[in-house]
Specification:
The chain is α+β, with helices and mostly antiparallel strands. The protein has a domain of 207 residues: FAD/NAD(P)-binding domain (3-Layer(bba) Sandwich), CATH 3.50.50.60. It is 35% helix and 24% strand. It has twelve helices and 21 strands. Strands 6-7-5-15-16-17-14-19 form an eight-stranded mixed beta sheet. The longest helix has 18 residues. Bound molecules: flavin-adenine dinucleotide (FAD). Flavin-adenine dinucleotide binds next to α1, α2, β14, β19 and α12.
Length: 401
């Protein structure tokens, strides 16, 4: 999503753009997510600090977090940075910068959705956080009011009866829901990226297969090998999502990056779920998709190439069955992807500090699908040298020295 949107925005500014991917656009992380364009996600996801929660995580209880010892060891320094930046005072600073990007999520997607003719993939009916206990519901309803005041995020609190009426697939009463009204949902996230890539090609862009590992400085510019031969350019943008860290290390950069892996599986519920929902006290999402009802899991701290361990999926499935009849899982292996995260919870967008003509656009963590178009716009504005839609300073790659 991020690379394709960056290509589109550069193209709109008159650059001659080649989009290079080792596969096809929209076939990796941007395919397997929950498909939400999250106008409500104005606060980045902090490291949970409640002692009970952390004990559950350490002991492998609950469905929200799972970890591999190798992952925690490899990413330990970045995770400590994440804990540090999650302190309420520093989290408030991150929120100020994060919310400025999220504010553009819908309007920037809307332009591409319209131009790409992708309305059929997008529902604009919101997203529910559902709550099992009245205490959690009350707290969330208060937080929603606070976000409305501070960031203009619209929502509606629904009591138990209103929720049951809105979502008849729920087969037991819940305490209530916060219905985020401006969040959009995409029923085939990979297909949306493909439509954006088709738009790029229809407007004259070149889409080639090639490996970023072959990227090299050449003269005053950059070159990369593709199946159609070498491509030379004055400027190159790296938008490799969760693979970015592996590549920038070869250039000598050590940024505090880490991954939160996540899984999905599709089901065939007899009663359709109308709108996506987060089981907020248990930490998984149910999202209606073209393929079926998609269940997505929370965070797994593990290396990108470690074998799949879908224990959270099994736990989340059992929890989801407490609320709705999921029906049978589709006969497919669970999908596995990784959220590309940064210790200070802000994406990395801007010029590579020690490589003229090279630009970074990655680290959009839990909201890369949401932020793709605005991330592309901001990066293209910087490359072009025009006034930017938001101040790019908080996302600068230079902040890591
Ligand atoms: C379970 C789960 C649920 C999520 N739900 C949501 C959600 O509802 N809403 C939301 O906004 N975000 C969500 N996210 C986060 C979101 O999916 C990511 O932030 C986003 O997809 C990242 O996009 P990207 O373009 O940076 O990375 P990717 O989509 O992974 O794209 C990276 C691209 O780089 C290419 N590439 C990698 N290495 C090379 C190489 N060496 N050479 C050439 N090409 C290469 C890949 O082929 C790929 O096309 C979720 C993530 C997960 C895991």
């Amino acid at each position: 999503m991020v690379g394709t949107c960056t290509a589109l925005h550069l193209q709109q500014r008159g650059f001659d753009v080649t989009l290079v991917d080792r596969g096809s656009p929209g076939q990796e992380t941007s395919l397997g997510n929950a498909g939400l364009i999250q106008r409500e996600a104005v606060e980045p996801y902090p490291f949970p600090r409640e002692p009970g929660f952390l004990l559950d995580v350490a002991l492998g209880r609950g469905a929200q977090v799972h970890w591999h010892a190798r992952g925690v060891w490899q990413m330990g320094k970045a995770l400590l940075g994440y804990l540090h930046h999650s302190h309420p005072m520093r989290h408030a600073v991150a929120t100020a910068a994060y919310s400025r990007l999220i504010a553009y999520a819908n309007s920037e997607h809307d332009l591409f959705i319209a131009a790409a003719g992708a309305q059929d993939l997008v529902a604009r009916e919101g997203f529910r956080f559902v709550f099992r206990t009245p205490e959690a519901f009350d707290k969330a309803a208060q937080r929603a009011e606070d976000l409305a005041t501070r960031f203009g995020v619209r929502s509606q609190a629904e009591n138990s009866a209103q929720l049951a009426q809105a979502e008849p697939a729920l087969h037991r009463p819940l305490a209530g829901a916060v219905h985020w009204l401006d969040t959009w949902s995409v029923n085939a996230p990979g297909a949306l990226v493909q439509r954006y890539a088709d738009l790029f090609v229809a407007r004259g862009g070149r889409l080639l297969k090639g490996d970023a590992a072959s990227l090299q400085a050449q003269g005053a510019g950059w070159s990369v090998q593709t199946t159609q031969g070498p491509v030379h350019a004055q400027q190159a943008v790296l938008a490799l999502g969760p693979w970015s860290d592996g590549f920038i290390r070869t250039l000598g950069y050590r940024f505090p990056l880490f991954l939160k892996r996540g899984y999905h599986q599709h089901y065939t519920p007899p009663a359709p779920v109308r709108q996506p929902m987060l089981d907020a006290e248990r930490g998984y999402v149910l999202a209606p998709m073209q393929r079926g009802l998609r269940l997505t899991t929370g965070a797994e701290f593990a290396p990108i190439d470690a074998p799949a361990t879908p224990v959270q999926l099994a736990k989340a499935e059992a929890l989801a069955r407490e609320l709705i009849d999921l029906g049978q899982p589709l006969p497919e292996s669970p999908w596995l992807g990784a959220r590309p995260c940064v210790a200070d919870m802000l994406p990395v967008m801007g010029p590579a500090p020690r490589h003229p003509g090279l630009w970074f656009n990655f680290g959009h963590a839990h909201q890369g699908f949401t932020m793709g178009p605005v991330a592309g716009r901001l990066l293209a504005e910087m490359v072009y040298g025009e006034p930017t839609c938001v101040d790019p300073t908080p996302y600068s790659p230079g902040r890591f020295g």
